[in-house]
């Protein structure tokens, strides 16, 4: 399988093709504290086929043990050693510049505090402690006072590091502000953009692969701008599951550096082959019985195919192939002509 600019085919189930999967959490394995349909089934069955899992998340608020416990409670047995968080990646980034024992002002949850301490740094909570760096990660209780201390420290010259720059996070109630939105408050106050260890930087992916060892690695996520962009820049095959932030329409309109290689309705997509779209006459692209083309900048869908999940997925795949080929050839796609292309009935 060659991870080129477009969608790729997988003639066997990904669980039988890849020996390691790097699995995002929020919007993929769970939504807030609620399970996602098909997640436990897909991951458990993938494991029985020999696929190893490492859960790689931009969420830095919790410790790996807590994440593993939640996964296990949702029917996805996991150990702390199988969890790689943005907090751990941020601590690794701090090590590239700060000596052991340096002071770090931490804005975030217990996961980030623990990771920074385990990296050998002294955690402080005030700019008056003259920290050498500020490490900021998401936590639901982060407020004005903590953000203000971060701004004071950054303004005075502290190195600014963010666990991730996700503007939003999926929760059981909907889409909520993420760490990137909180970082925006400090950035707006200081004019300083932080260095980030989280996705789309491939740092966590590479750390996870090094920890686990792998012959062939699959990245799984719900966000094009972080999970799938990280897969692209890291040289990994990326699977987009349609259970979180980015939608089917987002796939069609995706920038080249954020495009998925594979698309599935949910994690049960690990258990079935994935067809590859093929080019035909008059600009039409086909994926089994589904077809699509772009004419004069407008996406057109063929009439073939059924209405089950796999048929709807094939329409998305064909639409992506047609749209991406048109854009890559210099065309300008009319976004208003791209329909929702909903795959999941929920």
TrEMBL record:
Pfam families: Hydrolase_6 (PF13344), Hydrolase_like (PF13242). Coiled coil: none annotated. The keyword Secreted does not apply. InterPro entries: HAD-like_sf, HAD-SF_hydro_IA, HAD-SF_hydro_IIA, HAD_sf. Gene3D superfamilies: HAD superfamily/HAD-like. Keywords: Hydrolase. This is HAD-IIA family hydrolase.
């Amino acid at each position: 399988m060659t991870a080129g600019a477009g969608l790729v085919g997988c003639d066997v189930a990904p669980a039988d093709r890849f020996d390691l999967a790097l699995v995002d959490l929020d919007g993929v394995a769970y939504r807030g504290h609620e399970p996602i349909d098909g997640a436990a089934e897909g991951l458990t069955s993938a494991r029985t086929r020999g696929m190893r899992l490492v859960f790689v998340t931009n969420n830095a608020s919790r410790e790996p043990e807590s994440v593993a416990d939640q996964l296990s409670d949702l029917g996805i047995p996991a150990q702390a050693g199988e969890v790689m968080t943005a907090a751990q990646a941020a601590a690794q980034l701090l090590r590239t510049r700060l000596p052991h024992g340096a002071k770090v002002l931490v804005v975030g949850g217990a996961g980030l505090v623990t990771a920074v301490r385990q990296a050998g740094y002294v955690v402080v909570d005030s700019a008056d402690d003259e920290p050498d760096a500020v490490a900021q990660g998401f936590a639901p209780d982060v407020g004005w006072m903590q953000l203000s201390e971060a701004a004071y420290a950054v303004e005075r010259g502290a190195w600014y590091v963010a666990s991730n720059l996700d503007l939003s996070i999926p929760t059981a109630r909907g889409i909520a502000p993420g760490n990137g939105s909180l970082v925006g408050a400090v950035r707006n106050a200081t004019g300083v953009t932080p260095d980030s260890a989280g996705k789309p930087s491939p740092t966590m992916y590479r750390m996870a692969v090094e920890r686990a060892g792998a012959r062939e690695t699959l990245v799984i996520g719900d966000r094009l701008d972080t999970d799938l962009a990280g897969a692209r820049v890291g040289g990994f095959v990326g699977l987009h599951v349609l259970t979180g932030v980015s939608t089917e329409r987002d796939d069609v309109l995706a920038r080249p550096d954020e495009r998925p290689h594979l698309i599935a309705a949910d994690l049960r997509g690990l258990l079935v082959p994935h067809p590859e779209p093929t080019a035909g006459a008059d600009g039409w692209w086909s994926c089994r019985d589904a077809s699509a083309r772009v004419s004069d900048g407008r996406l057109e869908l063929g009439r073939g195919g059924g209405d089950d999940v796999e048929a709807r997925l094939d329409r998305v795949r064909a639409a992506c192939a047609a749209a991406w080929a048109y854009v890559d050839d210099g065309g300008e796609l009319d976004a208003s002509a791209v329909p929702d292309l909903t795959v999941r009935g929920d």
